[in-house]
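Example record

One chain of 143 residues, shown exactly as stored in the release files.
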Amino acid sequence: MEVLTKAYGQIEIDENQKIVFPEGLYGFEDMKDFVLIDAEREPFFYLQSVTDKDIAFILIDPFLSCSDYEVDIDNGELVAIGIHDPEDALVFAVVTIRPNSNMTVNLQGPLIIGRKSKLGRQAILSDPRWKTQHKVEILEKPC
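Predicted C-alpha cells for this chain:
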C-alpha cells in the first residue's frame, strides 16, 4: 500500500504497519487510520495518518526515557482493542518538539497498540507522576 507522508513523501508501506484507532486520538477523534513507520533516526517512530499527510506524530518507547514508567490501564480497555495478554501490547508516547527548546514526551497519554489486532487507543493515566511534558532523555533512569 502506498501512503503520502509528511516526513518522507510517497512511500510503500506493508499492510501490517496499518493501525486503526477506533476512537481516534485526543484532538483527532475523526482520524482512525494510521501507519506506524520506523523513523530514520532511532529510537523514534512516526504515526502517520493515512487520510491526511499533514497529520503525523513522532513516537518513542516511553520506557527508554523513563525506566520506572508504569502504564496502569483497565483490562476492559485492553480487551476492547484485542489485547488479552500484556505481551501483545506495544506502548508508545508522543514526542513534542518545540523551536529553541528540549523535546518533551507525553507520559500521561500513552498510545497502546495490539501487536496482533492492529488496533490502538490513547489512554489517559491518572497517576500524578506522569505529565504531558516530560523532558526526553534516552537513558535507562527513573523519572
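Notes: The longest strand covers residues 104-114.
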